[in-house]
Every structure is written in C-alpha cells, then in structure tokens.
Amino acid sequence: MIDLRVVVVDDEPLAREGLVELLEAYPGVTVVGAFADAAAALAGLERVRPDVLFVDVQMPGLNGFELVEALTSDPLPGVVFVTAYDEYAIRAFEVNAIDYLLKPVTAERLGQAIERVGAHVRGAGDRDYRASMAALLKGLPERAQGAGRLIVREVGQIVVVPTRDVDWIEGADYYCKLHCGAKVHLLRETLGSLEQRLDSRRFMRVHRSAIVNLARVGAVEAHLRGEGIVVLTSGTRVKVTRSRREELERRLEDFHDTE
C-alpha cells in the first residue's frame, strides 16, 4: 500500500478543502498541511516534510511554479500541479514525468495522480527529479522573458524581491547579493545560474562578479586601458570590463524601460 505525506497549497478555500477531503479518503495518504499561499507553504514545509505537494498554479503572490522553484528540501518532494492550464503546459508536465490535475478534481483522476507521483518519487533519484523539474520550469511559456521575482530565504521568513527593484547583483562564491537601494538580500545561488534566469533585456553582466539593472545605470565612465565604471542612479560605482563596456553602451542606447 502506498504511504505518502501530502501538503496542499491553494488560495481558494473551497478548492483546498475539497482536495484535502478527497486525499484523506485515499488509503495510505496523510495530509500533513494545507496552506492558502506559497509563502506560508515555504515557511511550513521544513516542519512537516511532505512526500508530495499538490500545488495550485495560479495564486496571488508567488504562483505554483515559483513555489516549486524555491524548494530547497532534500530529498525534493514530488509535485502534482492543480490547474486549468493550457494543453501545451500539460504536455510539458507529461514529458517531464510530473503529474497534473485539472479542476474540478475527481476522485478517480486523483487516485491516478497519487499512484503516478508515488511511484516516481520512490523510483527516481533526487538528481533526476530535480533535472526533470528544472526542464519543466525552463520550458514554460510564461517564463520566456525571465524571472519577475526572486525568492530569498531569510531568518524566519521568505522574502519576495521583484527583479525591477534590484539595482545590481554582486556575486560571492555560491551566493549573490541583491542590492536594492539601501537593502541587501543574500540569495543562495551562483551569479552564473542567476544570470540565466534574469531578463536579458533588462540585466547585463558587466564583470565576472557583477550584473547591473540597465534601468538603474546613470552613466558609464571610460578609464585607461578601455575599462570603465558603471555609475548607478544611487551613486554606486560598479566596475565594467573592457570587453563589456562597448556592449553595455550599445545596450543602453537600445534599452527602453517598459515598467
């Protein structure tokens, strides 16, 4: 018999309660948590340590995809998206071996999802599952223009940082410092990895350890040997390498801030 600890995340009370009721009727399934939003779920997951998450896709604040992207637990829980999403996303779920449920959820379809994700969690290595999850997230159409928000874990809380609020990003080993005005948030991710997730129309890497928000650039100073300094509107000065200074100047000429 299957034995799974399950968490439900859905901002709609009736949908959340209905899914919990269906899950509790399934043999071997224990609902260890039900949350109304992604931030509350992220704060509580380390305590309840579920095997599987049932996550609504469209929620205020962090959506279901952003919640999954923020998961850091080891091993990674299985994920079933609960959604009215279009057929292209559904195909992506199937290809990447991550199940989905279309609302309204039926007991029969729920049973199939439980069996499928349970077998997947037991049979697939965590590395394979993470790779599958990353492939799904990367391929979703709504993510094509880069992350709109970054999720930062700080003491006792989850902080959502809109990328438009980031002045510049400083790489430091396996971490990034997000400079947002007078505030600095520490994100556990390499600069190279974060660069791939950002909107390349808005952000540019100007140095091996620095990315700047083009909307925050006030001036570019040329120095000897072709190197330079990016002067942000806050007054912060960031080094730009010779090989990237000319590209930066071209990018600034073409940049149009739409936010």
What does the model show?
A 5-stranded parallel beta sheet has the order 2-1-3-4-5, with helices on both faces. With 259 residues, the protein is of the alpha/beta class. It is elongated, with a radius of gyration of 21 Å. The protein has helices spanning 13-24, 38-48, 64-69, 87-95, 107-123, 126-139, 191-197, 242-254; strands at residues 4-9, 29-35, 52-56, 78-83, 99-102, 149-154, 157-162, 168-172, 175-180, 183-187, 203-207, 210-213, 217-222, 228-232, 237-240. The protein starts with a strand and ends in a 5-residue tail after the last helix. The protein has 8 helices and 15 strands.
Strand and helix map with partners:
Blueprint: E1 4-9, H1 13-24, E2 29-35, H2 38-48, E3 52-56, H3 64-69, E4 78-83, H4 87-95, E5 99-102, H5 107-123, H6 126-139, E6 149-154, E7 157-162, E8 168-172, E9 175-180, E10 183-187, H7 191-197, E11 203-207, E12 210-213, E13 217-222, E14 228-232, E15 237-240, H8 242-254
Parallel strand pairs: 1-2, 1-3, 3-4, 4-5
Antiparallel strand pairs: 6-7, 8-9, 8-12, 9-10, 11-12, 13-14, 14-15
Key features?
5-stranded antiparallel beta sheet; OB fold (Dihydrolipoamide Acetyltransferase, E2P); single chain; Rossmann fold; 34% helix; 5-stranded parallel beta sheet; 259 residues; 2 domains; alpha/beta
